[in-house]
Amino acid sequence: MGAPKKYKTKIKDGQGVGEGIDYKPWYEATEYVPKTGIYTSPGERNKKLGNNTRKKGITIPRIHHLLSSYEIFLFTVFDLNPNIIDIREQFPLLKLDEVSDIFKYFNIKQIQSDEPHVLTTDFLIRLKDKSELAVTFKPTEFLSKRQMQLFQVEKEYWQRNGVEWKLCTEKELPQSKTYLKNINELHNNLKTFKDESISFYTVNAIYSFVNECSNNLKNHSLLEVAQIIDEDLSIDTGTSITVFKVLIAKGIFQLDLNQNFFSENIHISQIKILKNGALSKSDIAA
């Protein structure tokens, strides 16, 4: 893991500024993250929360730098949400004078060092209505008195800047391993789908088949229906499965993600079609 970068170097490199594909996070996955008083070493942090990861986004097609397994999961959920149009991770609170003022306002001790200590928010997300939401994750076992003081500063900072702030813990995340596996599979499949040459004509044909024929095939599993569609449309084996996952990821098909939805026990009748009318290219666009 690389040595910590100096504040001035980060500013010069444009870290913590920009939007969309041009945004550069304050901390990168290959970089040492300074101690916060919660972890005694990077090794302890990784043991508790999982290793740092670089993951390419779908909403914004750039590499995102995620510093724990929890962040990876939250990012995946955000990236699949059609109402979110931008995701900026490791977002720094760069109005340093304002941060210092908040520490003084709450009479909270501020870390003193030769380098400016920059607080960061795990995610700053922007919604379609142009509103923003700041989200920070922390396991409940690390919610010490000092950590809650820092969160008080962070929350006040965002409130002063007109942004809602939310603290998320593991208690608010799905506990089902199947759900976690399904979400990750949907996300990976959607990224792969973008690189494959499956035409909109084919996607629409599969969607229309399910929409029109699901009642006649209600006792068949999803896998069986996918095989039937592949044969009926004379398309490559597995194409319908890929498209099913895309339509679920895009919220056009709804299925209980707490189940292994491609097991023989899951029938086509369990799919709920949320889309009214014909499918359009924008429905499946990234």
Automatic annotation (TrEMBL):
Please provide the record's keywords in A-Z order.
Answer: Endonuclease, Hydrolase, Nuclease
- Give every TnsA endonuclease C-terminal domain span: 177-257
Residues covered by the TnsA endonuclease N-terminal domain: 81-170
Q: Does the keyword Zinc-finger apply?
A: no
GO terms, molecular function: endonuclease activity; nucleic acid binding
The protein's name is TnsA endonuclease C terminal
- Which species is the source of this protein? Marivirga sericea
